[in-house]
Every structure is written in structure tokens, then in C-alpha cells.
């Protein structure tokens, strides 16, 4: 057993996860905790960023106890590295305390502002960021909303920060002026930066009306931004002084952990929001166009870039169905739902689900979550298959865009929680007409964070090679030709349905 350990965490939408790995990628301890989402108004979704900090410390304390019980020395943890949501921010004061809600990609409160900014038809967005137009999920839009609508920000706002850097800076005991962001998560802002130069764009920020003084400094993910402070060491059970890395974006880490290190490869980050990513060498003009609904980001590694399309309620729709419709709390019930769904043929005899539970996208703003085509034979299993396939149709839309731009997508790696669902993996293979694989190390971002932590500590010399060594296929799913044809026909019918529900537009 190695005596070099690394602590990683993932600050996700529905939960946080903390784990400790050794340098041979053995998981020594792990704990998770659920987060809470508030819905103060229709279309609004917000959280408490301090909850992330509390839950991360809670899970760290659990991990330290597990290690001590097993006889593993917590003093051997050589670095801490985390990741978080790339499209979500809060505003902080000079003490580093949150003075606004934490708002992320699920929120729609900036819709009117987005449309007004779109109407300016500025080409600088696509030219410098790869994102041709504003989007409701962009932190740049949340920042504008905070500045206009939160009195506390007007009085004492200092910096805007993402949830992962917020946790890391507090673990290190840093103040507001010390706020930072890594160069990958920076691109999660959507607007306001130069993606190639990896710096804030004064011209864009002036257009947005956001002072560069409010923006965190840009660092590399493996930069050491501080060390575990005495107070949090006492609370978590880990020794003070452990180096703390700058952190990374969740999507970026999942991409790396799935072997998506070179252009042409694709990964499905099957978490709360289903993020379908394709790696490129840089901005592709045919994809960075108004109306594409694709987001362009830079990766964690230098010189890496990718596009992604998102189903805003992907994983959240699954949780909603299990909790609110099936009314089952335990995650084991997902397996039961799959068994019930297998009793029904692919396509559910024409029944369908539209997963727009938090509102429509820019193409269909008036659409809401909808079941259609149900009959007296439709039971819980049929509805569950409809939910899985309903999310899959949004994947098909993104797949068509990628292929039209010349990205072949002959191979798709699925990671995060959704990768454990064999039925859904096969549905995706059929719907996307591509070979799907899952990995033996399916934890995605957290074990990847620990590899980056080892690199930051100097225990790994070549980060890319270390990542490649971790890849081992667990299962392969091959598309069924007849199912693929059926799904394509249903996809065309779905398009007409969306237009009708949107008011004929």
C-alpha cells in the first residue's frame, strides 16, 4: 500500500463527493452528501454556496475517520484538489463571505437580459470565446443580475466566484481579494474572456458593464493557492498545512478522466445536467454560430478545447421522476425502474416525454415538461423509458450538429452517475448510432482530481500520461440498427411536437 495520499472533491448540483486516493488510484475513503435547491419564483433556481463549504468539510471529516479506523495516516495526504460547476457563481465581500445567492445553469431569471444582449448581434463573443451569443446559463449574465438586483452587492461586493474556488479559498483561509479561478472554469463564464489567451477581455467586460476588478485572478488548476487552515484542520481531522490546488471545472475533469484528451473524441458527462462533449483543436466557426445551443470551453490541460450541448434537466429529470412520480427515496429504485422499463419496447409504442422541467431552451422557450402518447397500457415502467428516451432525443440533436461539422462520433465514453445505468447506456448507443463504452474507474472527476493533486505535489511528472494509464473499459454497448431507424423516425415526429407546444414556432 502506498503512503502518498490525495484528497479530491466534486461540488455538484445535487450532491458533493469527497474521496481520498493513493498514488495507485485505490480509494481509501469516500463520503457524499446531498445539496438543496430552492425555487423562490417560477424559473428561478438558487442555492447557498456556504452549504457546499459545510458539506465538503462534513465529508472530509468522515473520510479522516474512515482512514483512522483503517490505520491509514491522514498526515500522508499531500494535496487537496476539487472541482465544481462551471456555470454558476456567487458574489462575495472583502472577507470572502457570500452576499448573494449561488445561481447556476438551471436558472432562467436572466431571460430578458439575454434577449436584449442578443439583439446587439455582436461578433466579439464568438470570435474571442467561441460562444456566438449570450445564454441564460452564463455566469456573466448572473453577475449582471446581481449588480442590478442585490443591494448587498451594491454596498460591499468585491468578487464573483464559482462554488469550487469558494470552498478552496475558505479551506485555505483566504479573503475576498484573493479570489481565483482556473483557466478552464474561466471559460464557463461564457462571455467576458479570451479563450485562447486565457485572460479576461476588457472590451467584452466593458460591453457587459462588469468591472474587471470584480473578476477573480486566473490561475492554473494545479497551482497551489494556499494551505489547509488551522480551523478547518481541527474540524475535518486532516492536518493543517496540506497544500491546496486551485481546482477545476467538473466538466473539464470528467473529460480528462474519460480519456478525452485529443480532438475528435467525445464524452457524455451523465450527471444532473447531461453534458455531451466533443473535443476539438479550437473554435470551429460552423459550430460557434447563433442558435447552435452549443457551449465552447477550454479544457484543464493546455491547448485543449471542447464543445458541449446540455439537457438542462437531464439527471435532474431522473431524480424528479423517482422522487416525485414514483415516490421512492432510495437510489436502488432506479434499478427497479429499469426492470419495469425493459417490459416495454424501445419507442414505447409512440409515447414520449419532453424533459423541459425548468423551462424551454432558446429554440423552444414556451415548452415545459410533457408526457404525450400515453395509453391505458402505459405504466410506471413505460413512463420511465419515456424519460430516458426523452433525454436521449436531446442528445440526438447535439449529435447531428457535431456530425454536420465533421466530428464523426464513432465512439462515446459515458462517465459520472449515469454510466452505471446499463439500460440507458444501450438506449444512447441505439439513439446516437454509435458505440458506447463505460470505464472501470467511473468516478469521473474525483479520481481525476486526485491525479492532478499528485501532479501538483510533484509526485507525477507527466499529467497526460498518468491520465491515460487509468483508462480501462468496463462495458461496451453496440447500436441496434433497427432501433436506430425507429428512433430517427420518432425524432422527426418530436420536432413537430415541440413546434406545436411552442405555439407553432
Helix content: 25-40%
Number of strands: 24
Low-confidence stretches: none
Based on the structure, what is the oligomeric state of the protein chains?
single chain
- Number of contiguous helices: 17
Structural class: alpha+beta
Largest sheet: 7 strands, mixed
Rg from C-alpha positions?
A: 22 Å
Strand content: 15-25%
How many angstroms separate the termini?
A: 62 Å
Give the rounded overall mean pLDDT.
93
Which strand order does the major sheet show? 18-19-17-16-22-23-24
Query: What global shape is seen?
Result: globular
Keywords: Kinase, Transferase
Family: Belongs to the FGGY kinase family.
Protein name: FGGY family carbohydrate kinase
Domain Carbohydrate kinase FGGY N-terminal: 5-257
Key features of this structure:
five-stranded mixed sheet; seven-stranded mixed sheet; 505 residues; 24 strands; 17 helices; 36% helix; alpha+beta
